[in-house]
Amino acid sequence: MASPTAAASGSSSSREGTAKAMVFDQISQTIQSTSNLLHLMQQSSPSQVQLTKLPKNLLAKTTMIKNTGQVLEQMPQVISSLDAHMENGLQSVPHLRTVSQLLANMESCQLSSLSQAHLPEKEPEMGKQPPAKH
């Protein structure tokens, strides 16, 4: 026997599929109506030159609409995947800061040892001699 949540999930999926089919049918009907209207306008309008610049066959756009629908269906999975990658990246930030700090420290130590190797030997400082009596 199916659990109540599985039944609810199935009916939700069914409703979603029905809603998508209804939207697609409405879009297709709109394209067909617009195409018919365009043909009527081209036949009866004095400004046919401007009308010929409009899409000649709106029905050809149906495939693009189907493809757009498929892309939109995949968007939740894409967003979820990107969200997981972002979360993973954010968890790595403290480690990256540590590595960056270690690299900066190594660079500083190397520069310090290089600068000490190239400095001439220092002369004894004047401040270390006993003060002269006047």
TrEMBL record:
<feature type="region of interest" description="Disordered">
    <location>
        <begin position="114"/>
        <end position="134"/>
    </location>
</feature>
<keyword id="KW-0472">Membrane</keyword>
<dbReference type="GO" id="GO:0005765">
    <property type="term" value="C:lysosomal membrane"/>
</dbReference>
<comment type="similarity">
    <text>Belongs to the BORCS7 family.</text>
</comment>
<protein>
    <recommendedName>
        <fullName>BLOC-1-related complex subunit 7</fullName>
    </recommendedName>
</protein>
<keyword id="KW-0458">Lysosome</keyword>
<dbReference type="InterPro" id="IPR032143">
    <property type="entry name" value="BORCS7"/>
</dbReference>
<dbReference type="Pfam" id="PF16088">
    <property type="entry name" value="BORCS7"/>
</dbReference>
